[in-house]
Amino acid sequence: xxxxxxSHATTLTLFGTFIVSFVAFFLMQRSPVFADPDSFYHARMGxxxxxxxxxxxxxxxxxxxxxxxxxxxxxxYHVLLVPFVTFMDPLAGIKLATVFxxxxxxxxxxWFLMRQGPPANAYGFGQGRAGVRxxxxxxxxxxxxxxxxxxxxxxxxxxxxxxxxxxxxxxxFAGKRWGSFFMAWFFVLLYGGFFVLIAAAGIYLAVSMAFDxxxxxxxxxxxxxxxxxxxxxxxxxRHYRPLQVFGxxxxxxxxxxxxxxFFPNTFNFxxxxxxxxxxxxxxxxxxxxxxxYPYGITSFIGNNVVVVIPFxxxxxxxxxxxxxxxxxxxxxxxxxxxxxxFTLKSRxxxxxxxxxxxxxxxxxxxxxxxxxxxxxxxxxxxESWEKRRVITILLGLYLAxxxxxxxxxxxxxxxxxxxxxxxxxxxKASATWLAEHSQKGDVVFHSDWDDFPVLFxxxxxxxxIAGLDPTFLYRQDQERYWAWAKTTLGEQRDxxxxxxxxxxxxxxxxxxxxxxxxxxxxxxxGVSLAYEDSEVRIYxxxxxxxx
Length: 547
Prior knowledge:
Elements (H helix, E strand, L loop, with lengths): L8 H20 L4 E2 L3 H15 L12 H4 L6 H12 L3 H25 L21 H9 L1 H7 L5 H16 L3 H14 L4 H24 L15 H5 L2 H18 L6 H16 L16 H7 L1 H16 L6 H19 L4 H19 L2 H17 L1 H30 L3 E2 L4 H9 L6 E4 L5 H7 L4 E2 L6 H6 L1 H11 L7 H7 L2 E7 L3 H7 L5 E6 L3 E6 L6
Parallel strand pairs: 3-4, 3-5
Antiparallel strand pairs: 1-2, 5-7, 6-7
């Protein structure tokens, strides 16, 4: 029996996409280095989740808001890490998980586009069989977008978050009420940034209503083919599917904040994480992670040209052929613009902006460019070949050489960035020594807030000052924050013992590049050197007794 390749084209395309993506991300992970120290935190949380289930308290950062109102905002991500960190070394396991989840995301993008055929009804959802042509090309485009692949190569939750968001949007477009409800619930337990799915549902509802209003005023009398009653009547709202899926997504998220292992701390934590850190942000007051600082617009365009150019072309085509556009296409366009604005405010959101620029371009082009248009384009290319053969050959050679060169250059730079972070053995010796010489809950006064994840991975005996984001300490106690910050920066020279007592310090760990802090600390009465290696010095602290 002859194997029918065409009948299995979808499965083969998705399988091929996954394999190619897996290999590409695997090559980026082959170094024993982590570009983001938070990866060590996630690896340890995966281990703790395997050992004791949901981690409901966080005694390792007692002076921060995490010590007061902790929830594991990545709980299901840590649950999914369990097999990876259980059956192999946790750091190697989280690297393998990162590769798997990133490849799964690219495959999800291609699958989403393959499902975006012509709308089957006037709501703008319920696709026919034919999806976006050559959807795998858009997967390749994402692999060529180096800021995106860099973010997806960090051993963190964004790839799973994005895959969940894209599947959730697919369910919204398909009008799946229960699917939208449970996907929103799942999203809450997976990642603290679940609000983006609610935003997507709200944008889709607003765009759908706008489309129906336009239909009502331009095609009077035909609105009843779309709705039982116009949506602006009570009965119409009850039957309006975009409103229903929005309500289901909102309801699923609301239930998820209550029906989870961390209730009632969910509300306090989400206020701190999603609003105070994610939206308000204190980057102009305190030193926060580099990902929270703005992304210059020229840098954003230059670094993401592989998706920006198709998006601009699609946007122009959308306005030229406005009547061919769909509610789902404009929903993706608005989401792309929404995430781009957030990226210009905080560069970390590039992980959302890039894929949605690609999705919006792909779906809009598929909506407005019909088969006859592709034939016309093909005829123009053939005519150009016949009349301007030399110019066409030179242009083709230029593109054939320059595009692979630019992609290879950017990916090489991407790999260099990924291998210039924190080595897997960083702090291993010093943190192991601390764990062996400490009592449970002894406080380590460490020299930088991003030391915490690595120390936490190797030493869960001690407690620490600040970690994951310094805003957690600043929001909990500004006096303690400035006492710690000025000491670590070397700005505070006098009365350092008061700062140590403020945190009930047992150990003082100083990286050797913090020379000003080290010079100030070593002369403080009650401080004595207890351990030293090539990375750090650890001092013990005992407040001098007063006569």
